[in-house]
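WARN retry 2 of 3 for item q-0093 after timeout on previous attempt; input resubmitted unchanged.
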Amino acid sequence: MRNGAGRVILICMALVLALLPVSTVLAQGTIVLVNPPSQSVGVNQTVTVDIKVETVTNLYGVDVRLTFDATKLEAQDSDGNTGNGVQIAPGSFLNPAQGFLAQNTVNNTTGQVQYVFALMAPGAAVSGSGALARITFRAKATGAAPITLNSVTLSNDQAQPIAVTLMNGSITVVPGGSPTATPVPSGTPAVTPVPTPITPPGGVGFPYVVQWGDTLSSIARRFGVTVDAIVRANNLPNANMIRAGQVLIIPTLPAPGPGPTTYVVLAGDNLYRISLKFGVSVEAIVAVNHIVNPWLIRAGQVLVIPTGTTPIPPATRTHVVRPGDTVSAIAALYRVTPWSIIALNNLANPNLIYVGQVLRIP
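OK item q-0093 returned
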C-alpha cells in the first residue's frame, strides 16, 4: 500500500522510480560513471565497460537505465546464465547472493539496457566505490558510439534516494578486427569439422578455437554448457579474458537424470553460484528446500536441485492483508524473508498490496 511505502525496505529500485524523482544534484560526492570513459576497439572485436559508483554511502539498491548506439555496438550476453536472453554481468560492489535481481534486460535493436538490483540481507548496505554492473560490447561498425546513462537511481536501506551525478562515456570503433570470411563457391559442399573428443580436467570434452567477438557466455550458450564449466575445464584465471585463436576445451555435460538431483554445499558457495552451475533459478532452489534465509547456507548442507519436473511445495500458510500491513512487516511476523513472499506470490510491486488480499506464506 502506498501509505506504507516509506516503511518497506526497498526490494527493487523499479519501485523507487515509481515513487521518487531521480535527483541529479551532487550530494556527498556520489558519482555513477561509465568506466573507462572512452576507449577504442576494432570492428568485430569486443570491449568491456563498467558502470561504476564512486564515494557512495549506505547503498542498498540500484536502477540503471542506459542507451548505446545499436548501429555500432551489440551487447553480449555476459551474466553467465544461459536461457535468459542477452543480459549484462553484475558488478562486484553489491553481492549478488545477498539480494534480488529485479530486472536485467538488453535490447540490441533499440540500444537500451536496464539493470535493477537491491540487497535484502539486514545490514548489507555498502559504502565506497566499485562496479555496479559490467557490459561487454561487440563492435559492428566504425565511428563514435556514445554510452549514455539516461537515469540512475540509488537508494539506501531506508528506501531513501541517494543524490547522484552521472558521467557518460563513449567507444570509438576503428577499422580492423576479423577479416571477412571467404565465401564457399557455388556447388561446393561446406565441410564442418567434427571435434575430436579429449579429456579435460573433470570430464570429456572437445576443443574449440575462439573467434573474434566470442565471449565465454556466447560460447557456453552455443554448446549448451555453463560458463563455470568452461572456466573449470580450462583452469581460466579470468573469465573475461579470452583471445581470438585461443583453444578452449568445451566440457561435455552428463545427461540429466529423470528427477531432481542433490548438491552438497562447498565452502564459499552461495545460492547465486549454485543456481548458475545447474541452470536453475535461486527462487526454485529456495522453494524446494524450504530455505528461510537465502543468503545463509552452510558448507556440507545437502540441497535438492530442482528440474522442470520437480514439484514446488505449496505454501501451507496464508495471510490476509490488514490496514497498515507491508510485505516487510508480514515477513517479520512469520519469520521469513520479504523476497520469499514476493517470489511465492508473484508480486510485481511489493509496495502495492491491498486490504483483504490473501498472500501465501512460505
